[in-house]
Amino acid sequence: MAVPVLGTAAEAERRQLTVMFCDLVGSTPLSARLDPEDLRGIIGAYHRCVAETVEGFGGFVARYMGDGALIYFGYPQAHEDDAEGATRCGLALVDRVVQLDQGEELHARVGIATGLVVVGGEVVEHDVAGDTPNLAARLQASAEPDSVVVAASTRRLTGDLFEYRDLGEIELKGITGPVLAWQALRQSAVASRFEALRVPHLTPLVARDEEIDLLLRRWAQAKSGEGRVVLISGEPGIGKSRLVAELAQRLEPEPHIRLRHFCSLHHADSALYPFIAQLERAVDFVRDDTVAEKRTRLDALIGPAAESADEIELIAELLSLPNSVAGLNLTPQRKRQLLLEALVHQLGGLARDRPVLMVFEDAQWIDPTSRELLDLVVDKVGRLPVTLLVTFRPEFQPSWGDQPHVTTLTLTRLSGRYGAMMVTALAGEKGLARDVIDEIVERTDGVPLFVEELTKAVLESVDREDQLASVLAASPASSLGVPAALHASLISRLDRLGAAAKEVAQIGAVIGREFSFELIDHVARRPDLETTLAQLTNAGLLFRRGLPPQSNYLFKHAMVQDAAYGTLLRRRRQQLHGDIAAALEQQFSDLVERQPELLAHHLTGAADTKRAAAQWLNAGQYAAARSAHIEAIAHLERSLSLLRSLPETAERDSAEIDLQLALGMSSIRAKGMISPAVGEAYGRAAELAEKHRDQHRLFQAIYGVYQHNVGSARIFAARPLAERLLAVTEHDDADPGLRLQAHHALWTALVIGGEPAGCLEHCEIGRRRYDPERYQSHRDLYGGHDAGMCAWTFGGHAEWLLGHPDMALASLAQAVTLAERISHPPSLNMP
Asked: How far, in Å, CA of 120 to CA of 118, rounded?
C-alpha cells in the first residue's frame, strides 16, 4: 500500500502519531469475482463502517485507497491514549467488517505503528512523512484476515490493556532487519489503566507518608460504622492512583471488600459505564458463557443485597441480560430512580458483611448518570462502614466538600530531594551519575509519572547506546526530551485549546521555560496575545506573575515546554530563534548585557553559527569576570563546538585563540593549574597563535602552558617555556609588561629548580620594571598574583638561600608593605 509523500509544509509539524492501515481481504480479490457496481457497493459499505468505527475511538480517516484506509490517532487532535484508541478501534473494526451483510463473506486486516512523523502540508493537507506509516502498512500486509498486528512501539504504550500473541521477529518488505510484532487479541481483564500500564512492579512511593497516614485514619474511622469519603485531587501523573494502590496493598491482611470503579475518556457519555464494568468484573463473565449462565451468576451475586426482586431485574436489564422489567409497567423516570436506588442498596448489603473500600478513579471523565449515582453513594456512605476514595484532576468540581464525613486531599509535586530519591530507586543497580539525576529532576518538576517515564527513557537509552550524552542534551529539542508515553498526553492539552493557543505556546517554548509578555509580544505580533496567554494560564499550562504588559510567564512543567518545542519543524524553529535573537538585540539590549548567554542560545538555535560562537565567548568572558568559572567553561565549550563546524580561516582561528585563552584561565580557576584541560586549552592557543605569528597572544598561551607545568611539578619542562617567553619579548617593540612577566616566569622556575642566584637576577630586573598602577590588570592574568610583590618575595627567598638574611628580611618586609598597599587577596595569601 502506498505511503503518502509530504507536501510543501506551511503548517507542518512533528507529531507522535499512531498510524493504522486497514483493508478488505479474502482468499481471492473481490475485484476478480464481482462486477464493478457490486464492488462499489461493498467498498462503500466498508468505508461507512470504517468511518463510524474510527469516529467512536477518536481517530481520523486521512484517506481511503480502494478497499483500504489510512487512519491517524493523534492528529489533528491528540489524545493521551491514542495508541490504546487505535488498538481498540482495530479490534472493533475486524469484528464489524465480518458482520457486514453485503452478500459476500468479508474480512479485514489491520496494521498499527506509533512514532514521530512530520504531518501537514499544502499539496495534500493531511500527508505524513516518516518511518511510522510505512511500518504500519507493512504490518497490515503481513496480517492474517480478521487480525490486528501492532508494532513494538504501540505494544509498549498499551501495556497490559490488551491480550497479545507474540509474533516474534518478522521480516517485512521494505523494512531493514527483522521487526518485533504482536497480534492484539482482545481487551484484557485488567480493569485499572494504572495497573495495566505499570506492571509488574509499582514505582517507589516517596514523600507520601502523611497522605497514607490520613487514609489509614479514615479507614479506621469507617470500620466503626461512620463512613468516610476522601476526595483525592491532583494534576495528571501526580500519583493519585499510586497512592490508592499503596493503601490497598496495606489493607490486604485485613478482611474487607474492595470495589473498583474506573471512568474512561471514551465512555464519558456512556450511562453508568463505571458501575456496569464493575458489576461485569464482579460476576466474572467470560467469553464462552451462555446468557443463562450469566443471569444465574448475576442473581447469585446481587440477590443477597437486593431489597426486592424488581431490583434484580433492573440490574439484569442494565447488563443486557434477560429480565422482566417490561412487566413492571414503570415510567422511564421511575425506572431510572429505582435502578440507582438498587445499586446503592448493593453497596449497603456488602457493607453489612465486611467493611468496604470503594475506589472511584478518574472522576473527571464521569458520565452524568454515574455522577448522579455517586451523589447518592456519598450521602449514604456516612452511615456505613465504607471508605470511598474518589480521584480526579483539578478540572473536576466535586459538590460534596462541605459534608462532615468528606475530606479533600490535594497531592502536590515532589521536592527536588524526593525526586532524586525516586530516580535513584528506579535506576536500581544500574545507577546514574549525579548530574544526570539532577537533569531528570529539573525536567520533570516533581511529577512522579514524569520522573518515572524519563528515567526509563534514560535507562533504555543507556542499555541501547551505553552513553548518556545523547539522552539528556541541554536543548529541549532532544528526541528523548519527552518520552513517548507522555508525548500524546501533553500535546493533547495544547490541541484542546485550539490553534492560536498552540502557536503561542510554541513561541513561548522557543523563548524558554520562562518568558516575558514584552518579549513574546515582539515575536508573536498577535492582537489576541493577552487573551491567548490567559487561556493557557487558565488551562494550567502556564503560571503568570504580574499583569500584562509587565507580566512574566512560566511553563508549569518543563516537559510541556519540551513537547510544544518538539512539534516545530527545524525550519520554523530556526526562524523563531532568529526572530527572538533580533528582538533581544533591538529591544532588550539591557537584558542581553546581563545575560549574554540568552542571545547566544537563540543565535545557536537560528543556525547563525558564526555570531553564536562569538556570543558564547562573550557569555563565557562575562561569567569569568564575575568568578562564575564553572558557568564560563560551559559557555566557552559551547562556543568551541560551534567554531569546529566553521571552515578553517584566519578569522576562525583568531576567534578560537581568544576562546582557548579564556577557557584556559577559567579552567585554572575552577579546576586548578594541574588540570589537563589547562594544558590542552593553552597548548591549542599556542599552536594557532604561532601559526598566525600573533606574538601577543602567543605569549599568553605559552605562559598558560608554563603555569600548567609549574602547577604539575614539571619544573624542568617549565624552565624552557619561561626562556621562550623571554625570547618572544626580546624585539624592540615588545610590550614591556609582557617582558616583566617573562622575567616573572623565569625567577619562579629558577628558584623552584634550585638556582637562587639566577632567580635573584631576574627578580631584581622585575623590581626595576614593576609599576603597580600600570600592571594592575596583570595580577589575574599571569599567575593569579602581583608580579612586583612576587619579585620581592621570591627575591627574599633567594637572598636567604644565598646567605644574606638581612637583605632577605628587608625584601620580605617590602613585599608585605606592597601587598597591603595593593590590597589584592591572592597576593596577600602568597607564602
From this structure: 7
